[in-house]
Specification:
245 residues; D-Maltodextrin-Binding Protein, domain 2; 37% helix; 2 domains; 10 strands
């Protein structure tokens, strides 16, 4: 069993099974895949490199060395009317400058990763003064997106969870700025250590990790598009490993 974000992985699995003979069961558990792995219910974990669970899982001996496999990303999302005229920009800093200059509403997403990126962008934009258009509702994640939709405002949030939420409820928001590399967040594959956790299919996990890092699979990851968003939001990251792996 593999614990992964299945948006981009699931379409690859028929080819993996054909090439390796290995069957996979994909499970997405959200915020804490490592508890599942410690219980012996996953052979391979894919998580953001910066996930708080990665370091203790690996240093505690539960997982083998992480390998970068791909990146997904956050985006600057906002109302379709786009009052700051940022749609399609490749420079998120310029987008923030335009939001401040036009005093267009902006809702803070207080989840740590999104706020971190926001702080960098504001500093790069010259730390423009924040007025009553800058709205901090102390909300995070989906609630920040709902607040932005209610206010007709911009915010920062991950593209995959935003699209999932938008399919579930009417949100008058769109990903408007996606192309800036600061938005990318690398994800790693971690084979669960069979010497620490019983029942791990190490051969299958190794085979899948190797498959994900092949140039052909990395190219398919780069080409992946959501049906409701014709923009690249998954990026190959295999080159960040040893070139022989």
């Amino acid at each position: 069993m593999v614990n992964v974000p299945d948006d981009v992985i699931r379409p690859l699995m028929p080819d993996f099974t054909k090439q390796s003979g290995q069957q996979t069961e994909i499970v997405y558990t959200g915020n804490d895949p490592f508890a599942v792995a410690r219980d012996g219910k996953a052979d391979l974990i894919i998580a953001h490199y910066g996930h708080e669970g990665v370091a203790p899982f690996v240093t505690g001996g539960f997982g083998l060395w992480p390998h970068a496999v791909f990146a997904n990303q956050i985006a600057l999302i906002g109302p379709p009317s786009d009052p700051a005229h940022v749609r399609g920009l490749t420079d998120a800093t310029e987008a923030m400058r335009r939001i401040a200059a036009t005093r267009s509403r902006f809702v803070v997403n207080n989840s740590a990763g999104n706020r971190y990126v926001e702080d960098i962008l504001w500093l790069r934009a010259g730390s423009p003064a924040k007025g009553d258009w800058y709205l901090d509702r102390h909300s995070q994640g989906p609630q920040a997106a709902r607040d932005a939709a209610k206010e007709g405002a911009y915010t920062l949030w991950g593209v995959p969870p935003f699209l999932r939420l938008k399919r579930q409820s009417a949100l008058n928001l769109e990903p408007l700025v996606t192309a800036d590399s600061i938005f990318q967040r690398v994800m790693v594959a971690i084979v669960v250590n069979p010497q620490k956790v019983s029942g791990v299919n190490e051969a299958g996990a190794d085979a899948l990790q190797t498959f994900l890092l092949t140039p052909s699979t990395q190219a398919r990851i780069s080409a992946f598009r959501y049906p409701d968003l014709d923009k690249q939001v998954w990026w190959p990251a295999g080159r960040h490993n040893n070139a022989q792996e």
